[in-house]
Write a structure and sequence with these properties.
Blueprint (H helix, E strand, L loop, with lengths): L8 H9 L3 H23 L2 H17 L10 H19 L3 H6 L3 H27 L2 H11 L4 H8 L3 H18 L4 H11 L1
Length: 192
């Protein structure tokens, strides 16, 4: 694939929305090292850092047609990485360690991020409660790390039903949380 350069963020977003892999490759090549360094600075773990960056770029590609960015692409990506790092800490029960690692100068930004994350988490909890009972049950079991087969056996339903319920849950959650544009990039990948 030939490397293409882009002159403006709008040109990149337009090409990305048209599924132009060159635009995605351009963003990846341009921002990967900086994003990786920013995530690693906080996580201090190569595997978790790689997971965060992978989640970011996968989500970026999956959402390319609906992506609305009101800042620069760079600012959007770095904000997304911050939220993904917070989600990673929360997921791994390291949130307190993260907040204690901040210098006083960073504390204001962190507090702002935490408020935004808490708002998103509250919206997620409400969305989760709005799921049909069986759908929510399957979704929560999947989050614990069970395979489709294990969920199928535990609930005495077919694997196809498990798959359908997960698809339904993710669709509903994405729709309900769509107002959280920059924040929702972190939530759905972390949840499944």
């Amino acid at each position: 694939m030939q490397t293409k350069t882009f002159d403006t963020d709008q040109e990149i977003l337009t090409s990305l929305a048209e599924s132009d892999a060159r635009a995605f490759d351009f963003l990846y090549q341009k921002f990967f090292p900086k994003l990786y360094a920013a995530a690693y600075k906080r996580l201090q773990n190569r595997e978790l850092t790689e997971e965060v960056i992978q989640e970011l770029f996968i989500s970026l590609w999956e959402r390319r047609k609906q992506l609305v960015i009101n800042t620069t692409i760079e600012a959007y990506l770095f904000t997304s990485v911050k939220y993904l790092v917070i989600a990673q800490y929360k997921k791994n029960n390291l949130f307190e360690k993260y907040s204690n690692s901040l210098s006083p100068a960073e504390d204001y930004n962190f507090t702002e991020q935490k408020v935004a994350f808490d708002e998103l988490n509250e919206a997620y909890q409400k969305a989760l409660q709005s799921l049909p009972e069986r759908c929510r049950e399957v979704f929560l079991l999947k989050r614990t790390g069970l395979s489709q087969r294990e969920i199928s056996e535990r609930l005495d339903i077919s694997e196809k039903t498990v798959e359908n319920q997960m698809t339904k849950a993710l669709k509903i959650l994405r729709e309900v949380l769509s107002d959280y544009t920059a924040l929702s990039i972190i939530l759905i990948p972390v949840l499944h």
